[in-house]
Amino acid sequence: MKKFRKVLDGLSSSSQGAVASPSCSNAAGTPPTPQDIHVQETLLSENFHICKTVRHGFPYQPTCLAFDPVQKILAIGSRTGGIRILGRPGVDCYSQHESGAAVLQLQFLINEGALVTACADDTLHLWNLRQRRPAILHSLKFNRERITFCHIPFQSKWLYVGTERGNTHIVNIESFVLSGYVIMWNKAIELATKAHPGPVVHLSDSPKDECKLLIGFESGTVVQWDLRAKKVDFRIYYDEAIHSVSWHHEGNQFMCSHSDGSLTMWNLRNTARPIQITYPHGKILKEGRKESCKPILKVEYKTSRNSNEPYVIFSGGLSYDKAGGRRPTLTIMHGKAITVLEMDHPIVEFLVLCDTPYSNKIQDPYAVVLLLEKDFIMVDLTQSNFPIFENPYSMDIHESPVTCTAYFAECPPDIIPVLYSVGAKQKKTGYSHKEWPVSGGTWTLGSQTYPEVIVTGHADGTVKFWDASAITLQMLYKLKTSKVFENPNAGEGRAVEQVEEDPYAIQMVRWCPQSRLFCVVGISAHVILYHFSKHDANAEIVSLEVRLQFDSEDGISLSETDPCFSDPSSHSPQMPGSPSNGSQDSLHYRKVKSRPVRMPPGYQAELVMQLQWVDREPPQQITSLDINSAYGLLAFGSCNGLVVVDYIQKTILMCVSTLDLYGAADPYQRLTRSPRKNRQSTSGLTELSDNKVSMDMERSKSPTSDHVNGHCTSPTSQPCS
């Protein structure tokens, strides 16, 4: 901005200097021309560049999730190397790894303002979050081994890194270098065992002793390693592959999830065999064999003060034979109660949020965070029916695919509070009454902010108003345009559904924030005008039908036919009430509700305009739209013509075809239509003069209130003679 001001100052001084300088004026003393003024440019193209300021919506291709229970912030990693950090509504930060490698795992240094990322290129990064824009402090590259799992104990300065070869490395967090302490896989397992245990899939410290490290291998082997003595305390062998391990807070037992859909409970007093084996969703069949189940990818074993029964929460494990097993699920077991929550998208990862960061204390879980492939959900564990929290982040921009967008800056200051107050009444029931648990971070709005609104139209006919003034995108109000139409019967709606899969999809929006008028264009060639009201209403919706069609036989040159003597059924569009196919065509588009409609506070439909079908063929889609609240006019058009509507009087003022607008100079080719039956002869029409000058003068005349191109603008007028 400073450089830009210098350019303006230079322009001002150069102009004044050029006028005062005699060299810049000619001999006659005339003032210099703009070409004589030379400005010294100090602002170069390198000073301008396009940059991303804010990312709205759900993270693309998420891969992992982390939570800081003290700072109350979330981190989401993606397959493209991005990191999304979320806190309270308004706290939203995005960072990107320069390598673009997928983020495999995230680990917070709890309450220290730091984050460790493990990427697919086998590199560890330490991020500093104690600044406005997170940045990488240190990086550590593994050249010979692939990283599979990481773990940072609470208030520890050591990072444990498991690899695909089965080895475990220890990294010093402060210097972010390898300590040289390596737990080799062949030392962790028995010497008599020749088979490789597989990659490291789990690392955790014992709640009783932080110097005891529990290592889980993919093959089913679990080892507890004494870091001080550098030896194995015990080994556990199981036939099924292990996916995850979770400790009891007392440190005397832990639970494992396996690939056959089973959960095993192990006690440290006797590690020869599990004390309990359960198949939560598997049954014993009549033949005596077990029902095959999906793998349990992750399990969390948490205790609560309010109940003697622990919470066992896991993903997967449903039977292959059940119809419900096709959908991803999260199972919550509390005592004898088993609750299965079905998800719309595959589960990427989930975390159980607890009151304490200490692993050796009673956990008291209060929520479950689920990261899905295309959604982000949080479940309230404190209520028996397990309701979900209402997500304050703009994760559902593409709840229905976005078909159009519009951006409005410097809106009236009262427009956002008004839309929010009306939209708050639209909130769905069934959500948890508690506040959103992720409440970390701080965000303050600058003094130079001004109201910004983004409007999105969607394929299902909905329109959403978003507050884009801050760094987050907050939905203010949702409008359903399909409510102005009748629900099609079994036979009537087939024609529309065959033409368009989404007959209510929004193509275009126009909004006047000052007058609060709103207009939308649908893909079925309809225009809906809305006005804003803070009170509910019960009123009828006015509907206007417009015939705006062009046929191949209508393509007669203006040099041959005078529009003032043309047949009313010729190439110019027909007004409402003009001869048309009537009910034969009206079956092909959506019918507007003819009865009084109850409309809640907010935007209420006032006028609907529909283009008619002609000879069972759909009209061309509307390509342009504009509204003028000062004059009470609305105009829209397609490749076939233009329509101007007085929305106050609910009357069409002008309906003119493209041929009448362009004449013989029409630069576009129209789509031909099949000829209609029983057409009237045009041989008796009077010819126009071939004089080009007279045509240009006639074409330059402004339309009067009596006629426009030979067609009456008033429904009560008679055709021009």
From TrEMBL:
SUPFAM superfamilies: WD40 repeat-like. The keyword Repeat applies. InterPro entries: Lethal2_giant (IPR000664), LLGL2 (IPR013577), WD40/YVTN_repeat-like_dom_sf (IPR015943), WD40_repeat_dom_sf (IPR036322), WD40_rpt (IPR001680). GO terms for biological process: exocytosis; Golgi to plasma membrane transport. It comes from the Eukaryota. Residues 567-586, 702-721 have a biased composition (Polar residues). The keyword Protein biosynthesis does not apply. Gene3D superfamilies: YVTN repeat-like/Quinoprotein amine dehydrogenase (2.130.10.10). WD repeats lie at residues 235-276. It holds the Pfam family WD40. One of its GO terms (molecular function) is myosin II binding. Keywords: Exocytosis, Repeat, WD repeat. Residues 689-701 have a biased composition (Basic and acidic residues). Residues 12-25 have a biased composition (Low complexity). Belongs to the WD repeat L(2)GL family. This is Lethal giant larvae homologue 2 domain-containing protein.
